[in-house]
Design a protein that fits this description.
Order of helices and strands: HHHHHHHHHHHH
Distance between the termini: 68 Å
Largest sheet: none
Number of strands: 0
Low-confidence stretches: none
Shape: extended
Mean pLDDT: 78
Oligomer: single chain
Length: 296
């Protein structure tokens, strides 16, 4: 009878072992994650931290070792994303050549290695965009231990926005800046121009990259405001300085010196500055609310 009972209960005991094994594995994974998102770092002023590093440089070694690991993983993912992007580089080249009159057929290579170098430059930009969420994740992993739990979670949730803002900068460049800048550059002397792929792609990918990076400014301001390093009141008070800095950045990014194309770059950057003030306001208000509910 006991043998029959064991035979009948064998499937249930087997399923029970599987559930216990899964629960054990889940608890081993869940507990470190829970601890990572709940522990509070020690509050310290930047000046005190800098003085400690100067007096005891050996304490910086663990952080440098962690940074090395993050950079290595980021480079590996970047290399993989670039390799994947290379398989689509020809299609991306055709897409980038659309603003030209005649499209990709208007480009003419004059060097043997020019087509390959052109596709590699395209692959680098596309690979960077493809790997950007993971690159942002590695940055978050490095700085997260120094953040408070709420800021730590907010930084993780903001990673998708990093990609969206970067792609927004690329889209703005492609649909607004290039259609205005390219005819001006090619028609400034009224002479027929033979465009090289290396020159054109270097120009387009460069401006796309820097404007994409500039579009990340609101997220950086939000992070700094969440850490208490900047306030929305300071951003409002320093608006004149911000306009000057934005003008300098626009002059650096803009491919031409005419005020029209420079204004096309300045306008979204000024809007992003206003948007950053709004994000800083939300971050500051959240900090004030958290302080008001703290005991004592």
């Amino acid at each position: 009878m006991q043998t029959v009972r064991r035979i009948l209960s064998a499937p249930f005991r087997f399923i029970g072992r599987i559930f216990r094994a899964v629960r054990t594995i889940f608890s081993k994974i869940y507990q470190p994650i829970q601890q990572f998102f709940t522990y509070e770092p020690e509050d310290s002023f930047i000046g005190d931290t800098f003085q400690t590093v100067v007096e005891h440089p050996v304490e910086l070694l663990p952080h440098l070792n962690a940074l090395r690991k993050h950079l290595l993983r980021a480079l590996l993912v970047m290399a993989l994303a670039t390799a994947i992007s290379f398989t689509f580089s020809q299609q991306i080249l055709s897409w980038l050549a659309v603003p030209l009159e005649g499209g990709i057929e208007s480009l003419m290579a004059i060097e043997v290695t020019e087509p390959l170098s052109t596709l590699m430059r395209i692959s680098l930009l596309a690979g960077f965009a493809l790997a950007l969420p993971y690159l942002a994740f590695e940055v978050w992993l490095f700085v997260a231990p120094a953040l408070h739990p709420k800021s730590r979670l907010a930084g993780l949730l903001a990673i998708p926005a990093v990609l969206l803002f970067f792609l927004g900068g690329i889209a703005f460049t492609y649909f607004v800046i290039l259609p205005a800048a390219i005819p001006f550059l090619l028609g400034i002397l009224g002479l027929p121009a033979q465009i090289r792929p290396a020159s054109y792609i270097s120009f387009t990918t460069g401006i796309m990259f820097w404007i994409g990076i500039a579009f990340e400014f609101p997220l950086v301001i939000f992070l700094f405001a969440s850490l208490g390093w900047v306030s929305y009141k300071t951003l409002i008070q320093q608006w004149r300085l911000a306009v000057v800095i934005i003008a300098v950045i626009s002059a650096f990014i803009t491919p031409t010196v005419d005020p029209v194309n420079m204004s096309l770059v300045m306008a979204p950057l000024l809007f992003l500055y206003l948007f950053s003030i709004g994000l800083a306001y939300l971050a500051n208000m959240r900090q004030d609310s958290a302080k008001s509910v703290e005991p004592g």
